[in-house]
């Protein structure tokens, strides 16, 4: 099923305007992570947030996500598995990420563990964007809820 067919199914099930559009697509299999584990955590309600490099928004189109937007989550083979709706979005420096945020992301057991793992990813992202990495490097933190499942 394509993203567009999945969206049509969502719109019909929720009784939304047939002309409504989804705000984006996310895949959890990028950068060598285990997408199936992330999706299972998402569907079980353990993963309720995600971090994204702020620099990727600046490079792409400069538009940050906002609360209330709907995103299709893709699983293996780029197949849609659910729709999430953003409930809170904020820009936060890497050095100011809290345990509450790490717990909502649902992947690490401490801020230190999260920082160690995430630092490597962000250093690569910053290098690609031509900016230095520091504790002030901005992240987009987004909380969300699953609003529709395949």
Approximately how much beta-strand content do the residues carry?
Answer: 25-35%
User: Which range best describes the helical content: under 10%, 10-25%, 25-40%, 40-55%, 55-70% or over 70%?
Assistant: 25-40%
SSE pattern = HEHEHEEHHE
Radius of gyration, taken over Cα atoms and rounded to an integer in Å = 16 Å
Report strand order across the widest sheet: 1-3-4-5-2
| First-residue to last-residue Cα separation | 10 Å
Low-pLDDT stretches: none
Short description:
The protein is built from five helices and five strands, in the order αβαβαββααβ. It has 150 residues and is α+β, with helices and mostly antiparallel strands.
Protein traits:
150 residues, alpha+beta, five-stranded mixed beta sheet, 5 helices, 5 strands
Describe this structure in words.
The chain is α+β, with helices and mostly antiparallel strands and 150 residues long. It is built from five helices and five strands. The chain has helices at 3-14, 35-43, 54-60, 99-105, 111-129, and strands at residues 24-27, 49-53, 70-74, 80-93, 138-149. A five-stranded mixed sheet has the order 1-3-4-5-2. The longest helix is centred in the last third of the chain and has 19 residues, at 111-129. The mean pLDDT is 90.
